[in-house]
Amino acid sequence: MAPPEELAATLRQIERQAGALATISVSRMEDVLPWFRELPADQRAWVMLVAQAGVRSLVEWLRNSGASQEVSDEVFDAAPRALARSLNLQQTVQLIKVTIDVVEEQVPHLAAPGEENALREAVLRFSREVAFAAARVYARAAETRGAWDARLQALLVDALVRGDSSDVLASRAAALGWTEAPPVSVAVGRSPGGETSAVVHALYRAARRIGVEVIGGVHGDRLVVVLGGAQDPLSVAQRLLVGFGEGPVVVGQPVASLEEAPESARAALAGYRAAPAWPAAPRPVLAADLLPERALAGDADARRILRQEVYGTLTRSGGELLETLDAFFAAGGVLESAARTLFVHPNTVRYRLRRIAETTGLAPLSARDAFALRVALAIGRLDPSSSGLG
């Protein structure tokens, strides 16, 4: 590359033509880039200033023996942050390419006699350096945005865990660009560890592949994930397991909107705390399937559900169902022994057990459901006044 003193006349010519080069570049952008024509007038004006700054940067680069110099990222400082948020990296590269093409076309008019090849070579090298500078600017912006998003998500998760008001949840979700997509549910599991932003990014990648809205955040050693638009949240959580660490993953019940998500989060968190009491639990598991463990761990919601929706339902259905269930459990789950205790035919016991399953959703012949029924009976009898019998 020619030393800067050999390009002195060329540099003076480029400086004089800086405004015209920027104008031609912007005009070319309007001709060849359909998306550029759709930008507001003020943003197109900012692009003009960036193009002028680019030409001045070329002159400065040439003066400083260009080939050994990096282009300063300050070439993009003429653009406000709003413009940087409006244009992605691919669009910025397109703008740079158009501007460089225009400068290359103008080389015969810009270069002093005999300096055309030197200027053309310098422009090619400068375009490479500008592309690197743009990549650095966008990489830093992405890192900053990623860290900020992780912080916002952590705040939203904290608000969910605390059960903050719906206004707080809505404002923080809006800042994250959350698109309301009912139903909404919350999944809780162990964080895989490492940088929080990396944990959240891995979760987002998995969610994009299956087309669901997610907001995730690390709360202590737990990863709390809000699922939006998941008609089958258990199945969705199954496909997001890659984002969780080892151990149980518990999914709260679906709710209509993000404002109601604290209810789902409360159930999922209670289920996560109680899950070790059921070592054979599937992964993921519904919080509703952990009702007996949650009740034993002191979860008031689980105790209320078992007391009112199981014990209360059985009591309201007639004393014979409770009597049959007691006899069945006392007989160790043997139908014939229960029938002899009740002085009825075994088929009568079978019929009543089917009615219990239909009424409560829990089948006494299933060991898991029988455990839940036993806990419900104990809770209901300890506090019959709260069983909804009045």
Distance between the termini: 94 Å
Tally of DSSP helical segments: 18
Residues in helix, %: 55-70%
In total, how many beta strands? 5
- Described by the principal axes of the CA atoms, the overall outline is rod-shaped
Structural class: alpha+beta
Count of structural domains: 3
Report low-confidence residues grouped into runs of 5 or more: none
Q: Give Rg in angstroms.
A: 34 Å
For the biggest sheet, the summary is:
5 strands, mixed
Mean pLDDT: 82
Strand content: 5-15%
For the largest sheet, list the strands in their spatial order.
Answer: 2-3-1-4-5
Order of helices and strands: HHHHHHHHHEHEEHEHEHHHHHH
Give a brief rundown of this model:
With 390 residues, the protein is α+β, with helices and mostly antiparallel strands.
Can you describe what's shown?
The protein is an alpha+beta fold and 390 residues long. The chain folds into three domains: 4-143; 163-289, Alpha-Beta Plaits; 299-386, Arc Repressor Mutant, subunit A (Orthogonal Bundle), CATH 1.10.10. 63% of the residues lie in helices and 7% in strands. It has helices spanning 8-16, 18-32, 34-37, 41-63, 81-86, 89-105, 107-110, 116-162, 166-175, 196-210, 233-239, 261-274, 291-296, 300-316, 319-330, 335-342, 346-360, 367-382, and strands spanning 184-190, 213-219, 222-228, 249-251, 285-286. It has a five-stranded mixed β-sheet with strand order 2-3-1-4-5, with helices on both faces. Helix 8 (116-162) crosses helix 10. The chain starts with 7 loop residues before the first helix and ends in an 8-residue tail after the last helix. The relative contact order is 0.07.
